[in-house]
Structure formats: structure tokens, C-alpha cells
Amino acid sequence: MRNLKGNFKIIFAIVVVVLLLIDIYLNNQPGSILPSFSKAKEEPIAVTTTQAPTESTESTTTAASGITFDFDAIFKQNKRVFPESNDRLLTQEEVDALAAVEKYGQSYQKTLRIAINEIYAAMGQDYSGTSYENRFADQDWYKKVEKKKITDDDFNEFEARNIALLLKKEKELKKDTESK
Description:
Elements: H1 2-27, E1 59-61, E2 68-70, H2 71-75, H3 92-97, H4 108-122, H5 133-137, H6 157-179
Antiparallel strand pairs: 1-2
Helix pairs in contact: 4-6
């Protein structure tokens, strides 16, 4: 009986390791954790404006991806960079397309940091006394919870993976900047 229990533990450990390896391979996310075998539907986001770009409305479309951002809304009206980032997966193409923000005098790294903080803010993170306080305070989607600090355990799968994607890009940009 004792050997049977020992063998069961070994088999169970092997199965868990195999499942984790399959999960990592299928999701191509080193930090991915079970259960996430079925990839969520990844639809590109399009934040558009009906007006042509003018002095008061700056928008751009990246030619390769066709993804459009309304930078006027993002920077002058403090609208979200990725409005659905708490509810769906962002794509690498969307994150890369955001680099067009530099054409309008904004920092790509700063815009990535804003997108990351918007995920936290949508969950009620308290930004009192920070540089983000004014950005989020007037937004109808922001429901501040006094002294609330979001932890990794609070994220759903979309939020966790989107933050990881944005942080990965931010780290790449920082590394590129340091190597120049």
C-alpha cells in the first residue's frame, strides 16, 4: 500500500509538470499558470474618432496594423488608452501600434505606464497624492476605494496577462534606451 501511495505522488507530480509545460507552450507566457488552456479571444481594439485629425483632434492609424488611437481623447480628455484592458486580452500588435504616440510629442514609455495604471485604477486603486490622481479623478469609470492597494492576487486573467505584456514592452524600451 505504501508503494502505491508513493507511486501516485510521483505520477501526480509528473502530470502537473507536463500540464504546466503544455500551458506555457500554448500560451507562450512564461508566467502563465493553470488553468488557462483555452486562449481567450484576442480581438484588436480600435479607439477612433469620426473627425479628421486637426489641431484639436490628433489621431493616427498605424499602416501595418490598421489600429487607430485617438490621442486627443487619451491626453487632453484623460480617456483610457485601452478601455477594455480589464475584460479582454490585448495583442502585441496593439501595444506596438501605440508607439505612434511619439509622433504627437508624447512618450511611448509614459503611455505604457498610463495604460498599466489604468488597469489598477479600474479596480479602485487609490491614487491620492500621486501624479495620476488628476488623470483618473474625473473619469466615470474610476471608483476610488480609499487607501486601496491592488495586489497580483486581485487581477483576473486578462488583467494579469495585459499587465505582463505592457511591462514586457516597457522593459524592452528601457533596455533599448540604456544600450544607446
